[in-house]
């Protein structure tokens, strides 16, 4: 991979997640720490990153000026579309679903046809509007404080609604998962909602592309033992495939063309 291509991908990850870590970037791009540090220094010179301990963060003015949800939708698009296609056969008429605010789950919502008939609860306006265009779906959107970077509703009102609901299946995305099966996030708002979803769903299906595999960051939501199925793409390392199999977690791998 050319340096320019690597810098472009690192910048995309910064815009999507708000931060990157040297150790994770070394694994993703298979280069040395010195190479990644030089890359981050270059991005800092371009004023698209601020160096931090162990990595870099997005400048505050970029966080305020960008619309991260739109950026996230286009990031790793082929992987997300392949994952969504692999998830589609798991939808059953007559069931009750929760669709979270992740862009991988939004990609799944876009694939649902007009003949399917089930109930969906979501915390995300973008996903709710997409689903509501299907004439046979019953769609419930959680209330609460609307987040500008995800178009999702959070806070005590959203959590109170969730406490009174139970689902057959939940389709969720994650900020990341570690190679030893820790599910994590960087958002305290997301933590509370994800925990409620895990606790109130008979089965939980995680849609996550291979770029999300990395060391734990800040908040542990749960472990892979709480997940029934993980759907990821064919770029996932064999070590993680082996871990899922040993843990008894169903793993579906979508081929990325």
Descriptive overview:
The protein is an alpha/beta fold and 257 residues long. Helices cover 42% and strands 23% of the residues. It has helices spanning 3-17, 22-29, 33-45, 60-65, 68-74, 77-87, 103-111, 125-132, 156-163, 188-199, 238-247; strands at residues 19-21, 50-52, 55-57, 96-99, 119-122, 138-141, 145-146, 153-154, 167-172, 176-177, 182-185, 201-207, 219-223, 229-233, 250-254. A 7-stranded parallel sheet has the order 6-5-4-9-12-14-15, sandwiched between helices. A 3-stranded antiparallel sheet has the order 1-3-2. A hairpin with a 6-residue loop joins strand 7 (145-146) and strand 8. The two termini are 18 Å apart.
In sequence order, what are the helices and strands, one letter per element? HEHHEEHHHEHEHEEEHEEEHEEEHE
Unreliable parts: none
Q: Rounded to an integer, what's the Rg over CA atoms?
A: 18 Å
Mean pLDDT, all residues: 89
The coarse silhouette is: globular
Tell me about the biggest sheet? 7 strands, parallel
Oligomer: single chain
Strand content: 15-25%
The end-to-end distance, rounded to whole angstroms, is 18 Å
Strand order of the largest sheet: 6-5-4-9-12-14-15
Q: In which range does the helix fraction lie?
A: 40-55%
């Amino acid at each position: 991979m050319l340096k320019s291509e690597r810098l472009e991908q690192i910048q995309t990850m910064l815009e999507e997640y708000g931060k990157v870590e040297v150790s994770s970037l070394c694994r993703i791009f298979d280069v040395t720490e010195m190479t990644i540090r030089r890359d981050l220094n270059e991005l800092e010179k371009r004023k698209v990153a601020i160096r931090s301990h162990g990595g870099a963060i997005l400048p505050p003015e970029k966080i305020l000026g960008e619309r991260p949800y739109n950026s996230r939708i286009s990031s790793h698009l082929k992987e997300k579309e392949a994952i969504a296609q692999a998830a589609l056969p798991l939808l059953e008429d007559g069931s009750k679903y929760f669709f979270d605010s992740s862009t991988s789950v939004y990609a799944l919502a876009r694939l649902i046809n007009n003949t399917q008939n089930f109930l969906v609860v979501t915390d995300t306006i973008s996903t709710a509007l997409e689903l509501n265009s299907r004439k046979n779906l019953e769609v419930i959107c959680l209330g609460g404080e609307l987040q500008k970077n995800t178009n999702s509703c959070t806070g005590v009102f959203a959590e109170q609604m969730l406490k009174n609901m139970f689902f057959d299946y939940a389709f969720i995305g994650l900020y990341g998962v570690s190679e030893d099966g820790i599910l994590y996030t960087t958002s305290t708002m997301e933590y509370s909602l994800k925990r409620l979803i895990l606790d109130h769903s008979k089965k939980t299906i995680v849609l996550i592309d291979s770029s999300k595999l990395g060391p734990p960051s800040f908040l542990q939501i749960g472990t892979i033992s709480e997940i029934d199925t993980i759907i990821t793409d064919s770029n996932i390392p064999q070590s993680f495939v082996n871990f899922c199999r040993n843990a008894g977690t169903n793993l579906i791998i979508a081929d990325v063309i």
